[in-house]
Design goal:
Mean pLDDT: 76
Order of helices and strands: EEEEEHEEHEHHHHHEEEEEEHHHHH
Strand order of the largest sheet: 12-11-10-9-13-14
Largest sheet: 6 strands, antiparallel
Oligomer: single chain
Helix content: 25-40%
Distance between the termini: 135 Å
Length: 433
């Protein structure tokens, strides 16, 4: 076991754990911490407590308890931060950059000066950093933050009248979806669902689990439910926080009645939805017979089948047998006639005739598709032309193309010679004349 304390740094809500050594701290004490950014001023939020020691996780040690000199140094840093903010705004205006300063923060040992700013896009502040370093003679850091972090740093009062959660106790931001306010029944008004930062309120996420649990205990609007006093009605409205529903009784009649019931007064599947934690009798105190009478659930009577039912059963059996005869003695895995699909193979079938027929087909090559493919391929081997197509099969495609070209030339040769013989006598006659 190891003893640790929970400490939050200045201007931060996140709690980190440190080892106090031999000292004992109480909530509200101030200490000096050793962090990655140097020395820091922190406040104890969780006093000494023991946890199991882990080899993979190491805890830093508290440097010391804060003294009066440390408080004087802290006040000096706060005054210098105000003057540094003025210098930063002048330099930003000089360089013509679009940056909004949120806060300037000195490290406790003054080895680092950090400026937090917001901007609509990326900003090239390299020249600005050089000017600030020449003025303050320390390490300068510029950090661009978003709208939520800006609101957390500046702080404020929320619509509930209390201090903002992100500025008071929230250790980190979590995703908030539009489905959460819809589930909680909040009107989709941007003023009501948005916080000071302009984003969806973080409290929707904090209350989502509670609303999901309360909604699971209530019926949905529009459903029909039965109450313990025997009334049946349609749910008109659901009051989640009060755990009550508004029912419309006698909805199918002209005159209906509206009543409000608590969730413990509703029945579900003939039983009360909620019982005592110790599992005793229902809240209403009704017996099972009374509940069955209210819901109309009775045990079904078992009666023997009459002559008409037996006749119908015989007809179904006869139709089933006719269908089997129509299909024939075709076993599982055997191909259907005129179809390309197969039945699913059943390993439990031991049909000797089916297996023998399948074996004969493989040996003798009686499969209709395989035989057709072999005939089709045998008719166009060695580069022969496909029937009804203009391309060739085989490797000698160049030779086949040349032969086809010569064949076309030979076919056109008689036509050319005939045309020459027809025109030649006419020219001779004209010359003779």
């Amino acid at each position: 076991m190891i003893t640790v304390i929970g400490v939050s740094e200045r201007n931060q809500c996140k709690v980190r754990y440190y080892t106090p050594g031999a000292e004992t701290f109480v909530r509200g004490d101030y200490v000096i911490l050793n962090t990655e950014r140097g020395l820091a001023f922190g406040k104890v939020c969780i006093p000494n407590f023991e946890i199991e020691e882990s080899e993979s996780k190491r805890y830093d040690r508290i440097v010391r308890r804060a003294t009066e000199e440390d408080f004087d140094q802290l006040r000096l840093n706060i005054r210098n931060e105000e003057s540094a903010a003025k210098v930063f705004k002048e330099k930003v205006e000089f360089h013509g950059l679009k940056m909004k300063l949120i806060r300037a923060e000195y490290a406790f040992d003054r080895t680092r000066l950090t400026f937090y700013f917001s901007s609509d896009g990326r900003v090239d502040f390299r020249e600005l950093v050089k000017d600030l370093a020449s003025v303050f003679r320390t390490r300068i850091e510029l950090r661009q933050i978003g709208q939520r972090d800006e609101t957390r740093v500046l702080g404020g009062i929320g619509s509930c009248g209390r201090e903002l959660c992100c500025a008071s106790w929230l250790t980190g931001f979590v995703p908030v979806t539009i489905k959460m306010p819809k589930t909680q029944g909040v009107s989709m008004n941007s003023v009501k669902i948005s916080g000071n930062c302009g984003r969806l309120k973080c409290c929707f996420k904090n209350e989502q689990d509670t609303y999901e649990y309360l909604l699971s205990r209530l019926p949905k609007a529009g459903t029909t439910v039965r109450t313990i006093d025997g009334n049946v009605g349609r749910v008109k409205e659901v009051k989640v926080i009060l755990q009550r529903v508004v029912l419309i009784l006698n909805d199918d009649k002209e005159e209906n009645e509206i009543r409000e019931y608590g969730v413990e007064e509703l029945l579900l599947d003939g039983k009360e939805r909620f019982r005592h934690e110790d599992g005793e009798e229902p809240i209403s105190g009704l017996s099972e017979e009374e509940l069955k009478a209210l819901t109309g659930e009775e045990e079904p009577e078992v009666s023997e089948a009459g002559p008409e039912e037996k006749k119908h059963e015989r007809r179904e059996n006869r139709d089933r047998n006719e269908n089997r005869e129509r299909r024939g003695n075709r076993g599982y895995g055997e191909k259907r006639e005129g179809r390309s699909g197969y039945h699913e193979k059943n390993p439990d079938v031991t049909d000797d005739e089916t297996r023998e027929r399948r074996r004969n087909r493989r040996e003798n090559g009686e499969n209709r598709e395989q035989q057709g493919d072999s005939d089709q391929h045998s008719s166009r081997r060695n580069g022969e032309k496909r029937e009804g197509r203009g391309n060739y099969r085989g490797k000698n495609t160049e030779q086949n193309r040349n032969e086809n070209k010569r064949e076309r030339q030979d076919n056109r040769k008689p036509y050319r010679e005939k045309k020459k013989t027809e025109n030649r006598p006419e020219k001779n006659e004209s010359s003779a004349e």
